[in-house]
Amino acid sequence: MKTRFWTVLQDPFFQAILVENGRIIRRIPTDPPRTITRKVGCVAEYKGTLVLLKHSSFEQWDAEGKEFIQGFHDKRIYGPHRIVQFENDLMICAGGLDLFFIMDIEGKVKWEWWAYKYGVGGRPDFYFKEDWIIKQVTGDSNKIPIDIRAQFNSIWLNGGKFLTSALRRREIIEVTINKEGFKHLAWTEDGCHSPIFDNGILIFCTDFGLKVGKRKILTQFKWLKFVQKIETGFAFTHEEGVVFVDEDWKIMKEIPLPRPFQLAFLEISE
């Protein structure tokens, strides 16, 4: 089984990496960043290009990560956890602000969904102050108080709606795009990350293993943070690598990596 994909190495690396058959062949940036604004939070695909979020900025590259296309700063990008293509635009989860927003490829924001407005997250008072941009690009210590923070961490699009999970609240919700409010779907006792539906079954990552409907499986893996349906079954990331399983959740391949998060441009071949 041959594999090729982009992912992100989390703390202490904060790099986007291209992995081919278990070997890292490219990194963005080439060395672990020493300044906060160069730290990569997440990666995704957009119309055949690679897009990524750094601390406070957006970047677009060619699919191989060789040619930089464009980039710009945005004060909404703080604690970025997910970026996905939505129609011709991009949807972003700014976990540090308990915020979701949609922008076009040039950075024009078309819609915002602030969790605090619906009682499902905290209000980031620091964001609304005049010195926010300076604080944003010089540190990451401005956080919503932990007792009211939702800490959203994902987006799974389902037509005109999306699923997401609030790690601090241990709640999974559904949001209708371009509308207010949300729909509560589930509570969990052991963490929740990156929920998806498969044939009507709710699947999400936990501190140890995956929750599939009412079952808890693959509990030997710690801190799962991303799960994706693939043609042959599923792929997920955990604290020590990426795992590919078949439709019966039998392990087909494991790739050791230090704290990978999310997958983009995934290719699988025999």
- What is the count of β-strands? 24
The helix/strand class is mainly beta
The CATH class assignment is Mainly Beta
Low-pLDDT windows of residues: none
CATH superfamily membership: YVTN repeat-like/Quinoprotein amine dehydrogenase
The CATH architecture assignment turns out to be 7 Propeller
Strand content: over 45%
Q: How many H/I helical runs? A: 1
Biggest beta-sheet profile: 4 strands, antiparallel
Tally of structural domains: 1
With strands numbered from the N-terminus, the spatial order across the biggest sheet is 3-2-1-24
- The N- to C-terminal Cα distance equals 5 Å
Indicate the multimeric state.
single chain
Please describe what this structure looks like.
With 270 residues, the chain is mostly beta strands. The protein has a single domain (2-269), classed as Methylamine Dehydrogenase, Chain H. It has one helix spanning 132-136; strands at residues 2-9, 15-20, 23-28, 40-46, 49-54, 57-62, 68-73, 80-86, 89-94, 99-103, 109-114, 156-158, 161-166, 171-176, 183-187, 193-198, 201-205, 208-212, 215-222, 226-230, 233-238, 241-246, 251-256, 260-269. The longest helix is centred in the middle third of the chain and has 5 residues, at 132-136. The termini are close together.
Mind sketching the topology for me?
Blueprint: E1 2-9, E2 15-20, E3 23-28, E4 40-46, E5 49-54, E6 57-62, E7 68-73, E8 80-86, E9 89-94, E10 99-103, E11 109-114, H1 132-136, E12 156-158, E13 161-166, E14 171-176, E15 183-187, E16 193-198, E17 201-205, E18 208-212, E19 215-222, E20 226-230, E21 233-238, E22 241-246, E23 251-256, E24 260-269
Antiparallel strand pairs: 1-2, 1-24, 2-3, 4-5, 5-6, 6-7, 8-9, 9-10, 10-11, 12-13, 13-14, 14-15, 16-17, 17-18, 18-19, 20-21, 21-22, 22-23
